[in-house]
Amino acid sequence: MSSFFEQLATRIERVDSVVSVGLDPDMDKLPTEVLDADLPRWAFNRRIIDKTHEHAACYKPNAAFYEDSDGWRALRETVAYAHGKDVPVLLDAKRGDIGNTARQYATVLDMVDAITVNPYLGRDSLDPFLSRKDKGVFVLARTSNAGGADLQNLELDSGEQLYEHVASLAKSWNHNNNVGLVVGATQPEELEEIRELVPELPFLVPGIGAQGGDEQAAIEHGLADGVGLVNSSRGIIFAGETGSGQYFEAAGHAAKQLKRGLNQYR
Ligand SMILES: O=c1ccn([C@@H]2O[C@H](COP(=O)(O)O)[C@@H](O)[C@H]2O)c(=O)[nH]1
């Protein structure tokens, strides 16, 4: 059984891409092309996958966009379809809860290949995820939103900032070589600092595209031994113009452009 990061390394090499395509099918933004479908989010994702998979190192659905019964059906279909194209799926769910609840949350790893988790409740809350040797677990360290600084940049008695402490803890949790960190591309200085602290951990770097993050910093600091993911969601999936007849082609083009842009720095 190969680890998530071994699978990801193989995928990155095969498609020559570290692009994570975010599948966040906001119902208010779906194009008319899919609105009559039984499950519009699934119809949308399927067509996005058809046009982007050759540029995708991974798909990253955010659980927030599937939190209803049709949503979970759409998510299941999407994951199976992405797997059919040989693309791993990272569920951005930011889980973190007490033990028995965390064990239930972790069962979603039977469906997806990796997940994001919130370290706020501490090590025991993450054990059910960390113990899944074949799955990737990305711990939030410095998120891409400005307000992330409210807690994550707090200075501790040790002189470290909280996000640095989280990065060091995550390193100590990496017994199964399945831990990565989430660090936003909108925080290039923190990206660099965290990379120095944990040279061996791959990062998921969101914040490219719609959030205006730094592509060069994302590549220079996000990858560990060439492995890591740089995510764009809205910048790819909503690149098209509804009714143009080329809606999904535009997503494919945006994914390809991002791949090329990032590859300049790899
Ligand atoms: O720090 C974080 C952690 C997660 N995200 C998620 O990534 C995507 C970004 O979407 P864009 O449309 O490319 O802005 C979305 O699912 C966020 O919830 C993040 O942005 N920052």
* Fraction of residues in helix: 40-55%
The CATH topology name reads TIM Barrel
Strand content: 5-15%
Topology pattern, helix = H, strand = E:
HEHEHEHEHEHHEHEHEHH
Radius of gyration from the alpha-carbon trace, in angstroms:
18 Å
Number of contiguous helices? 11
Description:
The protein is of the alpha/beta class and 266 residues long. The chain has one domain (4-263): TIM Barrel, CATH 3.20.20.70. Helices cover 42% and strands 14% of the residues. It contains eleven helices and eight strands. It has helices at residues 4-15, 40-52, 69-84, 99-106, 123-130, 149-152, 162-172, 188-197, 215-222, 234-237, 247-263, and strands spanning 19-23, 58-61, 90-95, 114-117, 136-142, 179-183, 203-205, 229-232. It has an eight-stranded parallel beta sheet, sandwiched between helices. Helix 8 links the parallel strand 6 (179-183) and strand 7 (203-205). Helix 2 packs parallel to helix 3 (69-84) and helix 4 runs parallel beside helix 5 (123-130). The longest helix has 17 residues, at 247-263. It starts with a helix and ends with a helix. The mean pLDDT is 98. The structure holds the ligand O=c1ccn([C@@H]2O[C@H](COP(=O)(O)O)[C@@H](O)[C@H]2O)c(=O)[nH]1. The ligand O=c1ccn([C@@H]2O[C@H](COP(=O)(O)O)[C@@H](O)[C@H]2O)c(=O)[nH]1 is lined by residues 22, 24, 62, 92, 143-144, 182, 184, 206-207, 209-211, 231-235.
